[in-house]
Amino acid sequence: MAYSSQAKATLILGLPLVGSHLAQIALHVTDTVMMGWYGVVPLAAVVLGTSFFFIIWVLGAGFSKAVMPMVAGALARGDETQVRRDTRMGLWLSILYGVATYPLFYWSGNLLSFLGQQPDVVEIAAEFLQIAGLGMVPALCVAVLQSYLAALGRTQAVLWVTLAAVGLNAMLAYALIFGHWGAPELGATGAAISSVTVQTASYLLLWAYAAWLPALRKFHLFQNFWRPDWAAFGQVQRLGWPIGLTSLAEGGLFAASALMMGWVGTHELAAHGIALEAASIAFMIHMGLSSAGTIRVARFHGTGEAQELRRAALVAILLSTAVAVLVVTLFLSVPGLIIGIFLDETKAGSAEIMRFGVQLLAFAALFQLADAMQVIALGVLRGLQDTRVPMVLAALSYWVIGIPISYVLAFQMGMGGAGLWLGLVIGLTVAAGSLLARFWLLAPKG
Q1: Cβ-based burial of 81 (10 A; exposed 0-12, middle 13-18, buried ≥19)
Q2: pLDDT of res. 137
Q3: Structural domain spans, the chain
Q4: Regions of the chain short of the pLDDT cut 70
Q5: Are 207 and 145 in contact (CB under 8 A)?
Q6: pLDDT for 272
Q7: Do the Cβ atoms of 309 and 303 come closer than 8 Å?
Q8: Is the dihedral of CA 150, 95, 251, 282 positive or negative?
Q9: Would you state the pLDDT for residue 1?
Q10: What angle do CA 241, 427, 259 make, to 5 degrees?
């Protein structure tokens, strides 16, 4: 295939995935915007709570990410039975993990207090998490079904279900946070109830689509769902846990930065959350392209087409680079406009959040290209089903380099929140370089 054909195929597969990832982050952005309108302390609590939820979710989501290349590779080989086996055991592992981790949400208040967060923020965050934790199982099952459908080329369905979830969340959150339309005013608790409801509804919609669509019935995905398949269980687990730990290393980088920002101050933590939401929107575009790269590389890997495999990876890298350049331009040209979306500027403390948030967006612009390259590299490496060495490279980059440098710059050298974010830039840059080198050394040559 010519590079133009590769790019077209990647975009056909990837654009709906980009849309679904953007819609997914819109769920969190909606809550952040509404909590910003509601108050500074509730906003800081939800920023802390969603970081806590994400760090636990991202570890379990490794199983769903393992399903994507496994299903794509099995489909390329014409093995429909393996498609069902891998997806079903991905759902099993997700359910078991979600149930096992709920105690962390129930006792989250003690954990957050131990980590040195402000008492008024902890009280609200703990109430939020005790409810939000109930959404872990449906959220992980949604991720598995999204990977299954994406590997089958059914990305449009993933997009439309996620868009429906955004609309439902906006209505429920608006009603339950502020007490509109006859609903009680619940603040952060309302945001948690809305999230759990939307996660459950999304799972039911994807389940219905996967189970009843005539073209997908041949896979018999939910037939005898209760029956274990230990061989497939082991395969998904072996590929999935390094993916989860890799994502945990990266997600933990940002979660740890949120915790350390909480030591700096409540206004700084709120600004940190807003800047991260803006950066996360851009990151979701790269995530969609990364998923497309995973599927394309896995298909060519399954059929042994080495030259096409390398071309598919290069196209994904180039597309992601172009997006990163556009985002950098946006962050540097209109930072005040971006931060202002998340704030009611009549609220006390909004001016301080605005000032600090604009500064953080400049650092977010610095790490855009590195963040794009590391997630694309991880995606194409997963297409080769290479997950353990990338896990080690990511852990070293984020936790041996990124976090210690963030801490030293912020607290030992007195740079505060700016130092925290500079450490993020350094960690992500090291990860991007090492992971890209790993792929080009490992990719088969034709």
Answers
A1: exposed
A2: 94
A3: 3-442
A4: 1-2, 28, 344-349, 446
A5: yes
A6: 77
A7: no
A8: positive
A9: 66
A10: 80
- Tell me what pLDDT residue 354 has: 82
3-state secondary structure 196-244: HHHHHHHHHHHHHHHHHCHHHHHHCCCCCCCCCCHHHHHHHHHHHHHHH
DSSP class of 410:
I
Confidence at residue 95, expressed as pLDDT on a 0 to 100 scale: 94
Whether residue 90 contacts residue 63, with contact meaning beta carbons closer than 8 Å, is answered with: yes
The pair phi, psi for residue 152, each rounded to 5°, is -85, 0
3-state secondary structure of 180: coil
Listed in sequence order, the residues at least 6 apart from 214 whose beta carbon sits closer than 8 Å to its beta carbon are none
At 221-240, the pLDDT tens digits run 888 888 888 998 998 999 88
- Rounded to an integer, what distance in angstroms lies between the CA atom of residue 43 and that of residue 94? 29
pTM: 0.76
User: In 3D, which of 252, 243, 253, 246 has the Cα closest to residue 427?
Assistant: 253
